[in-house]
Amino acid sequence: MSIVIINNFGQYNHRISRTLSYLGIENKLISNSTSLEDIKKLNPEGIILGGGPSIERIGNCKEILGNINVPILGICLGHQLIADYFGGETKSADVESYAQIEINILKNTGLFEGIDDTLKVWASHKDEVVTLPESFEVIADSDKCSIEAMKHKDKEIYGIQFHPEVQHTPRGGEIFENFYRICKEYPKN
To answer: How many CB atoms neighbour CB 19 within 10 A?
Structure first.
């Protein structure tokens, strides 16, 4: 059992895998064109939808969201895919930025268990979620973006605009450990 990382061609997808390995979390990085059948054969405990440059190159990410019942964490493009799939909206940001920012943690549970009320993160704001899906709640915001992180109200599906896998997010490892704990506690079918 492991975390399956869906590679959406983002520059940091391999770093997600290395970070999880460093934390002792078994993981497998796979192409976003891997069939649902092959993903299910991997028996994932959780899935991370990685970042990427373009909504046009998302492979089968939406099929994964609709057909695999495990906790899911979307990072950057993965966050936006989750929002779009569940009826939210993503647009190009008014002001593009790619920098370390401070986000406000609105819920210190789940993904942000044990994290302070503010957190320094490395975030890309080229595109961002501008309309929250009805079935989600905002769990972090910033002065740059009103939806830095979100969670499905009834399911263990999370989206984050920032990158926990880079050193500019000093507590990113804790976020991955929290996600892994959520995966281990999730009821198995």
So the answer is: 21
What is the distance between the alpha carbons of residues 189 and 185, in angstroms, rounded to a whole number? Answer: 12
Given this model, what pLDDT does residue 18 score?
Answer: 96
- Find the helix or strand (DSSP H, E) in which 82 lies: helix 77-85
Let me know if 165 is a catalytic residue: yes
Number of domains in the chain: 1
Taking every pair of Cα atoms in the chain, the longest distance, rounded to a whole number of angstroms, is 44
Residue of 61, 76, 145, 183 with catalytic role: 76
What's residue 11's pLDDT? 82
Task: Render pLDDT for 50-60 as a digit per residue (tens, 0 to 9).
Answer: 988 877 778 99
Q: Which of 45, 148, 163, 174 is catalytic?
A: 163
- Residue 163 is among the residues annotated as catalytic for this protein: yes
Task: Name the residue type at position 100.
Answer: Q
Q: Which domain holds residue 97?
A: 3-185
pLDDT of residue 152: 98
pLDDT band at 137 (very low <50, low <70, confident <90, very high): very high
Looking up residue 168, the CATH number of its domain turns out to be 3.40.50.880
